[in-house]
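Suppose you are handed a protein chain with no further information: no name, no annotation, nothing but its sequence. What can you learn? This example shows the usual starting point.
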Amino acid sequence: MTTDLPVLAGAAAAESGGDPGVLGTLLWVALPYVTIAVFVLGHVWRYRYDKFGWTTRSSQLYERRLLRIGSPLFHFGILVVALGHVGGLIIPDRWTEAVGVTEHMYHVVAVVLGTIAGFCTLAGLAILIYRRRTVGPVFLATTRNDKMMYVVLAGTIAIGLAATVAANIIGDGYNYRETVSPWFRSVFYLRPDPDLMTGVPVLFQLHALSALLLFCIWPFTRLVHMLTAPIGYVTRPYIVYRSRDEHLGMHETRRGWERIQ
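A reasonable first move is to predict its three-dimensional structure. Written in structure tokens, the prediction is:
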């Protein structure tokens, strides 16, 4: 499937034989490795020098009504979107075809689920941003990094959703697994191939660039909590409760709850 959508960088290069040029090399070779370095080293720095700041900075105590709506909606949507990106970018199309999933089947499921999940994510994020802006205590607890993170995150999600709708719902369709996915894998193979991105529609290119920007700022925002698992909760010691009452009740004290002298 093809599309007549414009491309951001490399259209002229594609016509002249596929040479991505200096701009294409900077965008699709240098920038991804800079992003990976900042992402990894940034988390190392954050863990060493800001362990107490490695948190979601929860604002649940300030307001719960909007949070109960926006947070599940956003987290459900972003989880489905993340899984879709993992499947689309990492798993080659020949693997899915080998297990009986044709490209048409994959395309239909990906577009339907991706569009629904994208709208859920964007709606949930809109509610959370509205809550953060209109609820006084929550707004006062919002840092500059939070504001920057929300702008970049919302932009990345909106561009990705627009790319899906423009190419695969309004347009004739675009199979990014033949271009963007091989380019993505080539970066991790240490054999980056910027030629694959020269003919990619502009919205897909902008989505990729905004995602790179998001991963660059990731270590310095509250997004770090996504890489933390509460493993210590399983092995933590019991919490000891002390009562000021002389009589602990009518029933016999259970073992392990004896009064501490």
